[in-house]
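Bit of a strange request maybe. I'm writing a small parser for structure token strings and I need a real example to test against, not something I typed by hand. Could someone generate the tokens for this chain?
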Amino acid sequence: MKRHAPITIPFALIAGVTSCVVDGGTLSADGGVLSADGGIEGCAADYGAAAAAQQLEVFVGAVGEFATRAAALDATIRTECAAIATDLGASSGDLQPIASESATSAACRVASQRLRDEFRAVRAGVRVSASVEVVPPQCSLDVTAFANCVASCDARVQPGSLQVQCMGGELRGMCSGMCTGSCAVSASASCTGSCEGSCSGSCTGTCSGSCEGTCARRDGSGNCNGACMGTCTGSCSAGCTGSCSGQCVVAASASCMGECRGSCSVAFTAPRCTGSLMLPSVDVDCRASCETRARASLQCSRGQASLRIEGMVSADVEARVQRLRQTLSAHYGVILTTGQQLQALADAGVLILQTADRVPAAVITLGTGAVSCAAATVRAIRLAVPAVRVSVTATVSISGSIAIQ
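Reply from user aminoacidic:
Good idea to test on real output. This should exercise your parser:
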């Protein structure tokens, strides 16, 4: 994997503190710790201006966003797995959980088995090979929201002094000054740089993703990783001889009318980081809470998947090939995207659980209301993190059934 040097960006920080507001509230799937608006049951609106109060309120907000996002992503995975299983012949009865199995785990277990069965049947009727080509989702974090969160949490941070680093990725955003790095603009015609999206005609550079045609070289997973004589979906490093539909990325050392990737001579507008957000010296619990919030709002492009057949398909399995192709195209790309977002939550869960161990003792001076709120929030995150791990395992089961083909 290509390594990137740290990218640092300064911010004029916006004041504000995240609060936990409960207005009535309803029971939730995680045991009744979330209110109707995503807050934590038992928390009040404000615990004062002390440093401990600021950290508690940001922690509460982070846990609420984590649990809400986790539930939404789990529902998406469950829906997509059920759709794949149903497309491949499963009944509603087949999708019922076994023993203590979650509904999502059950749906993905059945979908995984159905995929394996379909691939076995298809391979039996194809004289050469059948495999799946994927275009992974591209994800990024909101740098400004992360910086503002830290400023609202850590009382030691001076406005305008925070330096956020983008590690293992690149900084992207609108640049009103000079852009150094690359510039990406929306395209639906010819492209003289690299094409991200779909390149028709042929890609004489390196096609990374799927190739509807002849691919000169493939990686260990069967995805195209060489020149493509046909339509390349994913990215074409250079030499898109036809039309580029998506984004055309060219080297930049001047103004950029699209998305600047790299550095900007003035402050980026709405900057995003495709790697990890790092801070040189910020309270560890503030960093954990704010990173959790950032990962809970991770934005990703939609993944893509397509069935690649090389050889002659026998008539008796042609219908199987078509339904397998259709369900993979419609649903597996969403699972790829949601799986990456779930993994980001799982990674954040490791940090936020460490903070949860320290919160109850840190808020004793704030009164019984704060102590009660802290206890409820700790209970919520200790329920939510294991649930995310179950969801991640469910997505892995589906990816495994694809990878082994």
